Amino acid sequence: MPAVYIECTSWLRVFASSAERARELGWPGYELDTGHEAMVTAPEPLALLLDRLAV
What we know:
This protein has 55 residues and is of the alpha+beta class. Helices cover 44% and strands 15% of the residues. Strands 1-2 form a two-stranded parallel ribbon. The radius of gyration is 11 Å and the shape is flat.
């Protein structure tokens, strides 16, 4: 199953090491300029990204 990593970058970047690990595994990476709860703080950009990735 294909995998991608979406990192929310405006919230402490506590998952930066996970994003780096995903890159090491060859996963495509994407960033959203929002906090950890992107579905609450940036629902439209998140939905647009997920819709684009679902193709």
